Amino acid sequence: MPVSAEMHREIVGQVFARVPDLTTLTLGAIPRPLGSTLDHVFGIGEKLVLIFQRGGQLFGTASLLLPASQPPVPDALLDLAANLVSAALGRHRAERRVAESEARFRTIFDAVSDAIFVHDAATGAILDANERATEMFGHPADDLRRLGIGPLSAGADGYTLENGLARLQAAAGGPPQLFSWHCRHRDGRLFWAEVHMRRASLGGVRTVLVVVRDRTARVEEELARARADDEANHASRLESIGRLAGGVAHDFNNLLTAIIGNVELVCEDLGPLHPAYDRLRDVLKAADTAASLTTELLAFGRRQMILPRIVDPNTVVEAAARLLARLIGENIQLVVTAAPEVWRVRVDPMQFQQVIVNLATNARDAMASGGRLTIGTANVVLDDIFVRGHEGISPGRYVRVTVSDTGQGMPADVLPHVFEPFFTTKTLGKGTGLGLATVYGAVRQNGGIVDVESAVGQGTTVKVYLPAVT
Fold first, then answer.
1. pTM of the predicted model, to two decimals?
2. Which residues, at least 6 apart from 51, have a Cβ–Cβ distance to it below 8 Å?
């Protein structure tokens, strides 16, 4: 039955109404004469309207035409029927509103660019997760609810299930939590995320809302910047040490030249039969040793005279390998893996060969019980990302010379110091600490860089990058 605004005001609060004729029932659509005729023809008796409303909200109405032969319907029965239907319609409308609200919430929940988890505040279990969470961690939503936060965490260094639950409990009973977390993807890949936790009550259940934002790119950028800063500081420190060492070595070399020259003249004047001759020869040997040290210091300080020319790196490596075959000992296997058609480089070939010999000698000393020494060459193109972490080079074509061993390796705290002059991990009397310092100075003097990778028990790999001739 259609309801006019006037009738709506009249029926508010009612559950049924008895209507006198069809004209009233149809709001005038059926004229009275026609209505009387229809009553007579169809034997229509009582005309009723059931009004379905709840809390002042009208859901609708239903018209009932009863036969004239039927006795009037009791008011109580009409009241009961109208109230039952009104209650059912009210529930249906409320359920529909809830469903629509949940659909809107789910749409927004799944459209957010961050991963969102809903955790039970008491147990830490995952109650719900959005689509971004399934994409970020690689697990379907059902698996996320079943797995919990343990498999989603890196699992070490403070990023374990226990650490995660402690964070959840802190958020459930206190202020919001904001922190970085090391996460694990389903494929095993680790990544960094920014996590925000806040307690909330959803449907009467105490929960913790967790928002996870992937910040891998930002962390990698920060790490690259930190590495670049460390590299720049390290290079600056070595540069300062190099200038100091080179200056001292230059002056000291001049003094040695005078000492050696005069001692040699005295030896010639006295002759080998003089009682002091042997002692003077010992002085010469000591002075020659000192001169060798100053030569290495000059190389580190990049003040050594060099004669650079365009060379084939493989030719230099092969010449060094022939020399090393007699130096490294029978218990060490020497393997040379020279790349074919390696690019040419502009270096002092003798200085380049000395770099390889120094690196190989260090590798030999790290393999007291024997092992494998590998020397290789390769063409590489260094991009902006690599260059940002290394001071003093530009992107482009380089030749990489790699010297690796299977020796004892070095701890992480030693690596930043390996190029410093007189720094050594060898026992007293086993080395001067100038081998790698000389390598560093020589490579830098020829426009290249040196990288060292090492771990205790896993050997050491030194990579020398020299700019290719274009």
1. 0.44
2. 11, 14, 15, 16, 17, 58, 61, 82
